[in-house]
Amino acid sequence: MLIVEDLALTYADGTEALRGIDLRLGQGIFGLLGPNGAGKSSLMQLLATLQRPSRGSMRFDDIDLLAEPKRLRQQLGYLPQEFGVYPNASAIDLLDHLAVLKGVTARTERSTEIERLLTLVNLWDVRSRAVATFSGGMRQRFGVAQALIGRPRLIIVDEPTAGLDPEERNRLYDVLAEVAGEAVVIVSTHIIEDVASLCDRLGVLADGRLLFTGTPDELTAPLKDRVWISDQKKATGRLLSSRLVGRRRQFRIMSDTAPDPGSTRVEPTLEDGYLAVLKGAYPC
Amino acid sequence: MLIIRLAAGELRQQLRGPVIRIVAFVSLLMVIGAAALDALRIEAVSNLGSGPELVIRVHLVWTLFYLFTAAAFVGEAVTRDVQTGFAPLARATPVSRPAYLLGRFGGATAAVLLCYLTVPIGLLAARLLPAANLDWVAPVLPSTYALALLALAFPNLLLASALFLALATATRSMNGCLIGAVALLSLYGLRSDQGDVASLFEPFGFVAVQALQAGDARPLIANRALWLAVALLLLLVALWLDGRTPHGDAERKAASPSTSASVRVRTSAVTHVHQSDGVGAVLLQLLTRTRHHVSETMAATPFRVLLLLGLASCLANLWPAIGAQAPITDLLATMIRSFALVPVVVVLFFAGELHWSDRTHRIDRIVDATPVARAVLLMAEVLTLAAIMLVLALVTGLAVPALLLAAGRAPEFGTVLTAYVLPKIYDWLLLAMLAWFLQTLSPSKFAGWGYLVLFLIGTLALDQSGMTNPAFHYSRYPGAPLPPSLTGQAGAAPYRAVWGAIAVLMLMLALTRRTKYRKR
After folding, report:
1. Which of B40, B65, B204 is nearest to B126 (CA)?
2. Which of A70, A148, A270, B307 is most enclosed, with most CB atoms within 10 A?
3. Which residues 226-265 of chain B have a CB within 8 Å of chain A?
């Protein structure tokens, strides 16, 4: 169980990246949604013990993250939003290097673990190639493989699907779903589809504040029978989103009653719930 | 017009950085200080008359100091886009590659020249000082400043910048610039003091200026014309090299395996992976990190080139002494004196490269999220520096027995080991520890390099002020740079022991220092 209480981070220039975050997470995948600049990466870095908070506490089972960061790191898998690699290092050599740093010291066990991970992410056939020559998707899968070294119990992946094509994204979903049965997995993303496909629970972070936590169903439930599609922008109700559908502008509006005579009631989506939270229109 | 706008943008970028301010400040301080205090005057500008002669000499000498500044500015201008990931965006614009490179070059060179103006400004400011030396306040016509600046300093800096541009474009790294700076300094070191050939081919114009002072301007005109032509040629080479490099990272990447491959998610039996943090694990982590850093360093082009340059210089100096049947102690003394610059440059450069390696390669967050102790990561850097020193000492040390054998003499392995290899490893490691310690304190690699350069300048200033007592100079001892096994200086051991203790203290401080972030 990961327990975060009153977590805050203020940078030296006075920017408040996080303000009073409270969170309780058990095993499974937790999706952290939020627009760019919401504080997702800052929260991820605090949880990965790469940075110390200005205030608050973080516990993972019996580990106090601030007092015993090393103990946490022994159970941590972390994939940052952006990462590089040593030039010329092959996938197998770099994983071996990182496995040693993670304390997997028995040679045979290390080899077995590396083979398992490279197979898991479908990179075994290119294990001898320099990671620097990998495509974006392959590199991202390598990043996931390194995060899973040692079967971590807390896995933090920051924007893992950014820039991936649909097939690569599906592969990543499979891998994360595979490991989620044994660990607390936190996936930061701004792609709603990631959360819809993967997450047991989700949180919406904006402007450093956690505005919602719950299951995907809990996010959409209060919007049941209250989301309408209309082609009239000036219809009554709260505008959630607008998009072009077949070259016609379509508006999704939250309202207890039909916002205009031509509007149609639809089932609320995760995106509706997410946008309702972001726009302060969430009915709770 | 486009090139000028690009150059202006590059100049603004350079002006916003801290390096230009630091260099300008130090430069100004050194010039004014030299004018005010005899003690701060460096050898190259001592006893060289006064007035115009001195102004010209100061301008020339400071162009040598500015080689590394030019290397830093031009190197950064060329490599910044790749390092920041901006290159693909820049290359996708309609701006042609030659225009883009010329713009960057123009801005960086303008920054160098602008920064260099602190030299004449310092000279002029020094004239206002009540304590200024009389030689430095003797009447000087404005035309002398114009000559020194426009005919000597600026062409020299233009040549250096063009060379660094070509090297940085070829290597896509600062390494190329560093090699170029050392090579240019070597050319300066190889100059002879007179003769038509020297006045033409010595790239900085030191020799040609002597002819000018004797009333003959033709050698200087020929010299300037030749080296400006070389600068232009180097610029063309850089443009040609830039045109040959791929347009984007993607072109260097091999094609991905077929995306139609089925996902092979293997549901393996859940078994626990044993993670250890005992002494054995720590030693293995230390070995792994050290091996990684050592192989990274040994594969680095600057290391190999610097080593080869140093070795060539040693051999060139040793060969005449071998022929003259000089005793082994004299040979080793020659060796130590001719291989003095390379270890300093290696220490300066690689202390920064090693300490910031993970960040440079953007893998620092992944490494920092592992349970490896911070002390292990730092100790691996120190062990790597020791290994580098060992390689430097062994490779150059073996040159002596090789030459002795070639001359039909006994190889004297034992003497080389005890009087050169072991004591010099110790000496260089002392400096390496300081360079590395400064890196651990600094917010960036460049700042760390700057700190050590300031230390080296401070050492020079102390020497010039007569404070040559080894007690005032970290890592120095009686008889240095020759070790006591060559000089027989009995008093050297306590100094070496104290400096060693200070190096250990720096190591302990670095290992135990608390940082806001994990390692950075």
Report:
1. B40
2. A148
3. 252-257, 259, 261, 263-265
Q: How far, in Å, are A237, A241, A248 from residue A261 at the CA level?
A: 13, 19, 18
**Which residues of chain B have a CB within 8 Å of the CB of A105?**
276, 280-281, 284
Higher pLDDT, A72 or B81: A72
If contacts are CB pairs under 8 Å, which of residues 139-168 in chain A contact chain B?
Answer: 143, 146, 149-151, 165, 167-168
Q: How far apart are CA A70 and CA A52, in angstroms?
A: 13
Does residue A78 carry a pLDDT above 90?
Answer: yes
Q: Is the peptide bond before A87 cis (omega within 30 degrees of 0)?
A: no
| Chain A closest-CA separation from residue B357 CA (Å) | 9
Residue B272: DSSP 8-state:
P
Contact in structure between B372 and A101 (CB atoms under 8 Å):
yes
Residue B517 has a pLDDT of: 53
Mean pLDDT of B265-273: 52
Q: Is-contact A199 A29, C-beta < 8 A? A: yes
| pLDDT band with cut points at 50, 70 and 90 for residue B497 | very high
CB-based contacts of B129: which residues, under 8 Å, 6+ apart? B32, B35, B36
Cα-only R_g, chain B: 26
Per-residue model confidence (pLDDT) at position A209: 94
Pairing of strands A63-64, A264-266: unpaired
Percent of the residues in chain B that have a pLDDT greater than 70, as a whole number:
85
Three-class DSSP category at B364? helix
Which residue of A45, A74, A90, A102 to mutate against B (max B Cβ within 10 Å)?
A: A102
Give B26: exposed, middle or buried? Use CB within 10 Å, 0-12, 13-18, 19+: middle
What are the DSSP calls for A67-118, one per residue? T-HHHHHTTEEEE-SS----TT-BHHHHHHHHHHHTT---HHHHHHHHHHHH
Instruction: Flag whether the pTM goes above 0.80.
Output: no
